[in-house]
Amino acid sequence: MRNLVTGASGFLGSHLVEGLLAAGEDVTALVRRSSDRSHLDRLGVDVVEADLLDRGALVKRVAGFDRVFHCAAMVKDWGTWSEFRAANVTSVQNLLEASAAAGVGLFVHVSSTDVYGHPDRVVDESAPLRRRGFLYGDTKIEAEELLWQFIDRHDLPTVVVRPASLYGPRSKTFVDDALKLLREGTPMIPANRSAGLTEVSNAVDAILLLASDKRSVGRAFNITDDSPVSWQTYFERLAEIAGLPRPRFVPIPRRAAYTAAWAIEAAYRGLRLTSSPPLTRLAVDILTTEQGFSSERLRSEFGYRPRIDFEEGMRRLREELRGRPSPDSPTR
């Protein structure tokens, strides 16, 4: 079976490429011209270039593939509406149209549990999608709405997956960015609710399981390890395995943190700063609300069980960190 993976140079996409290769599948990685493809080159996987905003070029790129896994997205807590919409909505529309025109057998769309709008309780796939004014979550909702409307009108078998907080080797958001804060000694908000942690290899297992079972078509699935581990515990363990001082948590009410984040964002917008603010409303929401979304549908109907628990996940992450050059090492 021929598989095309978009966003293959990114975090989830690169792990999905590895999972497909391990399963003996034929894999092609679709990347932008500017993407770092060094990891893909080491894997020896076929790589093609394409701009997901170029609809005409996409039709040629997806032709002949049995399955398309759409992992590419703008995953940040700051940016402009036009950037997020181009990356998370327009690209989905273009890829859907190209896949339908090419007769692709299955389209797997990677969404996010952010589409639920951080309801601060455990919810399953029946929960409504809720816009919160956060560009990432809102554009992910718009992409899903577009997708469901599209497959109602076209013969394109589609599965939607909604991973929770992904971590693991090569993670930028919850590893590299978190390590930067820890190294700088940045005070952190106490975060004792479930973080919804999902080790990236578990997410790959779930995606491949769903992609191989026709019962998944036309449906959405949460993917999470169902772990009770909190962000506070995660940051403490991340500091430990990286050999960094224990993080400093400053008790601050959620409302006060949210108000401060709103003020900081307003200042950044007013000054037209393009760098990410030190604190955003989305970050406050993620850290202070329940992120333990239910994956019962995946478990009960498909027999899914995460094979990597938190301790094993941190062990793997420690091994990867040990293989990296020191951040203080001189570069050439």
From TrEMBL:
Matching Pfam families: Epimerase (PF01370)
Xref: InterPro entries: Epimerase_deHydtase, NAD(P)-bd_dom_sf, NAD(P)-dependent_oxidoreduct
Residue ranges of domain NAD-dependent epimerase/dehydratase in the record: 4-223
The name this protein goes by in its record: NAD-dependent epimerase/dehydratase family protein
